[in-house]
Amino acid sequence: MARPDTPPPIPDFDSMMTITRLIEAARTTDPRVAAIEPRHLIRHVKGKRAVFHAEFEGQDAVVRLCMTPEDGSAAREWDEMQRLWLYMCEGRMRIARPLFACPAHGIVVIAAVPGAPLLEHLYTLDPVDRAPCLPAAADWLRQCTAMSEGWRVASVKGWLRRARAASEKQVWDTLARHEAGILTEMERLAEQIENAQWRTAISHGDFHPNNLITKGKLLTGIDIGGSHRMPIYKDMARFLMHLGRRRVDMGGPLVYGVNRAGFEAFCAAFRLESAEREVFLPFMLGFEALIRVESTALPKSRITRAEKAYGDLLADLRNAKKGAL
Question: Which has the closest alpha carbon to 23: 14, 15, 33?
């Protein structure tokens, strides 16, 4: 019988059968896999990955199970966790503790992190009390990237190509009209960026507020499987636009469609130079607006909020061009 303080068993029978089959196969190559006791499903993307709560060797844990281990993603994620753990295993800014991996079978096990996802925490606060949480998020990203930062020759063609391809899939006409203008402004900024020097680092890769767990003064990053070398501005923009697209009221003015206090927090944490804050980061804010194609399954209110954010972003990109921002 399960202990009363453990989460309920995974409810989805098909997911449970898939997870059980893959775990059983992995036990033949590493006996420690037998210590994984699945408890509660977090997410299952069929054919790709499953994430679930578990007990592992007497500890509360989270297991990430890649369905295609031959692509090496589990091994890369484990290596990145091991690297970051040396720098972020104590203090206020941490990552979840890596416990075990069986990369050949796509398994990575980390310690469960107590606390609340940052976005959920923000919703429990009054708007005027939300913005003070943002400098800590910027500091977490700064600590994550500090040991691998370096200046490199910029190339934006790939970023533009991905943004354009995503925008062509936009099904909401109101968003598509703004995106066409944003893409034009990104192309203008790209002319200033291409072959210039910008900062890159091994960064989180999917740095949004729910990938930070907050408990008191402790901030713990999770889901770092997408970490790789990229311009440092990409994850800043991911975080800011995640809030901006949802129009989360942060109790203050906006800039480029996102909270100005958050924008300034990242600029301060990374000591961004003028070109970085006026060209590179706005370019990546445009990229983050276009790359996230809003689904038809979303409520109209969500689309309305995104439309306002994109409209504000486009207006400020144009105002900045005129020197009027």
Answer: 33
DSSP state of 256: T
SS3 3: coil
Q: Which of 3-12, 35-44, 260-269 is predicted with the least confidence, judged by mean pLDDT?
A: 3-12
CA angle 118, 38, 210 (to 5 degrees): 10
Residue from 189, 209, 174 nearest 308 by CA: 174
Alpha carbon distance 312, 318 (integer Å):
10
Place of tokens 């790209």: 190
pTM (2 d.p.): 0.91
Q: Tell me, what amino acid is at 201?
A: A
8 A C-beta contact, residue 192 and residue 279: yes
| 221, 88 contact by CB (below 8 A) | yes
The CA-based angle 247-252-253, given to 5 degrees, is 80
Q: What is residue 182's predicted lDDT score, i.e. its pLDDT? A: 98
Residue 298 φ then ψ, to 5° = -75, 150
The 3-state DSSP class for residue 89 equals: coil
Instruction: Say how far apart CA 195 and CA 12 lie, in whole Å.
Output: 50
